[in-house]
Each structure stands twice: as structure tokens, then as C-alpha cells.
Design brief:
heterodimer, A: 2 domains, 4-stranded mixed β-sheet, 13 helices, about 70% helix, elongated, B: about 250 residues, alpha/beta, Rossmann fold, 9 helices, about 35% helix, globular, binds adenosine-5'-triphosphate, binds magnesium ion
Amino acid sequence: MKPNNRENQLNASHPKEQPPWKLALSLLGDTTLQVELSGNWRMRDRLPPADEVRRRLEKPAQINRVIFKSERISAWDSGLINFLRNVTRLCNDRNIEVDDSGLPEGARRLLKLAFAVPEQATGRHVEPPSVLRYVGQVALDLIRGAPAMIRFVGEVTLSVGRLLRGKAQYRRSDLALTIQETGPQALPIVSLISFLVGLILAYMGAVQLAQFGAQIYIADLVGIGMAREIGALMTGIILAGRTGAAFAAQLGTMQVNEEIDAYRTLGISPVDFLVLPRMLALILMAPLLTLYASLVGMVAGMLVAVLAFNVDLNEYYQQTLSALTMQHFLVGLSKGAVYGILIAVAGCLRGMQCGRSASAVGEATTSAVVTAIVFIVVSASLMTVMYQKLGI
Amino acid sequence: MSGEEHIRVVDLTMAYGDFVIQRDLNFTIERGDVFIIMGGSGCGKSTLLKHLIGLKSPRKGEIWFDGIDFWKAPPQEREALKRRFGVLFQSGALWSSMTLQENVALPLGEYTDLSEREVNEIASLKLALVGLAGFEQFYPAEISGGMRKRASLARAIALDPEVLFFDEPSAGLDPISSRRLDELILEIRDSLGATIVVVTHELASIFTIGNNSVFLDNESRTIIAQGDPKMLRDNAENIKVRAFLNRGEP
Ligand SMILES: Nc1ncnc2c1ncn2[C@@H]1O[C@H](COP(=O)(O)OP(=O)(O)OP(=O)(O)O)[C@@H](O)[C@H]1O
Ligand SMILES: [Mg+2]
């Protein structure tokens, strides 16, 4: 990979080898320091730092001029310029005059170029990393992030208001496309995951229930569990990873390309145009996918009960029907809808807040998924407790 | 410029799939030249540059650097040759997740055995050379378009390249910044002794910096004129070339 390095390591293993450069400092008269350079002064030659010159300048001497002698330099590149720049800076800091007339012509020009534009006071320097600082930064970011989130939720609410009054600007075709992407195209993965989760649920329950000869209650366990909780939860997690991430990446890339600014300048609200269709698509599709996931899970449970635990198919079917009420499904659907909204908010929020670089898109995507999953799990607990208390 | 051959292109034909972009290109670039590649939009200038820097292989023909046939050389030798090139891409192509300092330091860290202190000093030197001292800790997204061009120049010259390739260096710059960039290019050529290959259609730059050139044509798909652009402006036999160099007035 790095042939240069290998070559140089070989060199380094000969400690006796003389460096190819030579640096000699001498005083001319009382106040002039002559810096004599000879040999090779290239980046690969392990050049000296300017420390020796600094020590010389710091000596209680009254040096007020530095001159160079360089006829015996045989090869040089940016390494030499770097050394000279450091020497020049040392001198500038001490108000010592630098006479560059003894330097090679090209080096003089580069040195001049390097000092042509004075350093801008941008106030930005590398700060040493510290844990305290990091913690503070995270806390500050959180505090600063909260108003943005609230503002975004407000904007979305206004936008929904415009939608209800038929005033929101968005393209129906975008909505159709987003529905297609979030709903039907997610069916394979939702089928797979909910089938397997249904299977696991049925197995775990059946092993316990079979001890009492109560295998038939697998139907209740799987039916109610899938309809009320698991169908919605699994759908939510899949959509967060699949759709929420996609939303954040799409909007983030548009932010990077200044496409969102282009909408703003046209007076089109990016929230109406981009966020609303995505939100609507998820609110419509998440409950449908939840319902579908619950049914697939129940089928998986039935297969386990019938094939592995010798439950009669018809009996299982009847038991499922008697265990489930419409209410169970409505609870599941309402959760699905809430998760849909939360995923859309998390994905679109992170996408719209995205910075202006490629890596920012990656960060936005990650943070969208994390935010969505946190939202889902927190709201799932809240809703479960709430429905329990209300006796629904 | 120096009379010494540096890059030679022999019977080069370039194509994307079946789509031949240019055929039978022949020209020589001498050490110390500022060589201009010009022609109308879409004629294949960027494509030619990609062939010269080894990003795309020729359909037919050879490209020689310092007497080495680039595409016949073994892979290690090709990689070693590439490290002697500096490239400024049409869009700048700074790495957006790194600060300017890190952008310039990356090639130094990868391909030299300088200590970390030296890498940082030289990266900051290169940024100072292009007038960006003080902006070391900025990210590419936080500086202006012209500053980005200069920062990519700093990265292109990080390893003191022998050949510097520029794709439309002054596109999108105001006339003054674009003239400063031209001066910078000449200054770097003179002080580092590099050979410079520039794709551009800025007439002002073509005449100030160029001392040799080729003109690619989209219709006949080959070179229709070559030589010093100032001479071509007045004496080219081809009307298209004269029109191009005289702003459409033949
Ligand atoms: N990756 C690619 N695949 C197929 N064709 C390409 C590809 N890149 C470029 N081309 C074609 O090659 C031709 C030359 O493109 P190129 O980018 O080299 O033009 P150019 O001379 O640099 O133009 P401009 O001055 O506008 O930058 C164009 O017709 C383009 O369609
Ligand atoms: Mg181009």
C-alpha cells in the first residue's frame, strides 16, 4: 500500500546513516544570524524542526537580522518551504528582519506567496478533546434541538390544516409514489418478520400451556398478542428502518443539493410539498400493514398449534374467533397509525435538519432511525398502560 | 516550454461503450508547459483528462509519461506514477466530512513518512499558499465556491506533484478571483517547476496562462488545431477555432 513508507523504514533501520541535509547557524557581526542550508531539503529527508533556530534567537543576543546561505542545496521541495516558513514566523514574532535574498529563487517566491494573504482571524482552532466538554456539547445540542422539534411539529400541524382546507400544495403523483414505496413494497419483509414472530410467540406460549394440556389457548395468546401489540410493534420497527431512514436520506440529500431552498424561493412550503405526502402515506399504510402483520402472525401461530401441538384446525379457528373482538383490532390499528405518524415525523425532521455535507446525510439517517425507534417504544408503553387503565 | 518531452499521447481513441468520443489524438506536452485542452461543451475534454490521470483506460492508443507507457506499466508503477499527479476536479471534490486541514493532510499522511507535526505544518503551508491561512478547521460546506476551488488546489499540490491537472478551474468564479487563480497557477508552475494541463473555455485564462493547446471538435471527433493559443487566435486555418478564440467573430 505505501511503498514510500516501506522504503523509509528500511532507511530508518540504519541509525548510523547521516541525514542528507545540513544546517549551520553562525553569527555575523553582533546582530546578524546566518542560516546556512546545504544538501537535500525534501519532505522525505526527515528534516529538522526550527527549534535550533529558535534557541539561537532566544539566547540573550541582540540579533535583529536573519540571512540565508543556500548555494549548496542540491534538491528541495515543500519540506524546505515549511522549515523556512517556521523560521520566518519565529522572526516575525520577535520583530527580527528576514533577508531572503540568499534563498533559491523558487523558494523565495513560494515563501512570499505563503505570507501574501495574512492569516484570517476566524476564531476557529482545534480544541483538545475532553469528556466534560463533550457532555456539555451533547446537553447543549439537546436543549437547542428541542425548539426545532417543536417548531417542526407546529409547521406540520399548520400544513395538515392547509391540507384539510384543500390549500396545501403538493403533487398527488408524489403521494401515490410514496404510498407505493411505503406500503406494497414493504409487504415481503413485513410478511417474513411477522410470520417468524408469530411462530416464536406460539412456540413460547405452547411449551408452557402444553404442561396443563391447555394448548388450545395458544389461539388466544397469539390472536390477542398479534392484534393488539406485536403486529403494530413489528410493523413500526420495520417501517422505521425502511421508510423512516429513506425519508431522512431523501430530504437530507435534497437539503445538501439546495433543492429545499429552491422550493422556499418559489414560495412553496417544503413541509407541504415534501413532508405532507410522506406523512399521509405512512398514516395510511402503517395501519394496513399492521393489520396484515397481525393476520400473518396468527396464521403462523395456527401452523405451530396444528402441526406441532396437535390442536384441531377447526377448534383453533373457533377459539380465535371467540377470543378476538373488534376492539382488539382497533387498538392495534390505532397504535399502527400513531407509530406511522411518529416515524414520518422523525424521518422528515432529521432530513430537514440535515447539514450540508455527504456525511451529514448519513448522520441524519442514523438519527432518524434511532429517534423513530425511541418514539415507538416510549409511545407503545404509554398506550399500553393507558388502554389498560381505560379498560379498553 | 523546456523542449523536454513530459507527456505524449499517441493515436488515442476514447469511447464509452460503442460511443466514440474522440479518435486518433496525437500531441506532446513538454516539461513546464501550461497546456490547454479546449473545445465546445460535450466534446470530451473531461474525458480526455480522465484518460490522462489514469481514471479511464483508452479504447486504443498510448499515453506516455517520462518515457513510461502508462497503460502497459505494471500496476505498482502506475500507482507510483499517479502519486506524481495532482488533480483539481471540475466540482472541487473536497471530502465533505473532513476539515480543509484534514483534506490536505490525507495524501501527506498516506504517502509520506512525515511526522504528524510535519504533516500538519505542511498542510497549513499549502493552505497558506492558496490564501486560506486561518481556515484550517473549516469544513468544505462552510466556505465559498471560490475558496473551495483554492482549497482543492491546496490538496492537489499537497505532494509537490510534477504534473497538475485542472478541470475548469475558473468555472463559477468572478473575474478577479479567476485571474488570481490563474496567477497562482503560474506561480506554482514557476516555483515548483510543475507541468500543468488545464481544461478550460475561459478565453482570458487561455491567453494569459497557456503556451500550448489542443482544440477538440465534436463533429469530426478529433483534434482540429494545436499550438500556442495566441497564435491560433490570429492564424488558425480552421474557422471554428478562430471563431471560438475570437468570441464567435471569425
Ligand atoms: N460516464 C459516461 N458514460 C457515457 N457517456 C459519457 C460519460 N461521461 C461523459 N459521456 C459523454 O462523453 C461526451 C464528452 O463528455 P465530457 O464530460 O468529456 O465533455 P466536456 O468536453 O468535458 O464538456 P463540458 O465542457 O461541458 O464539461 C459527452 O457526449 C457525454 O455524453
Ligand atoms: Mg467537462
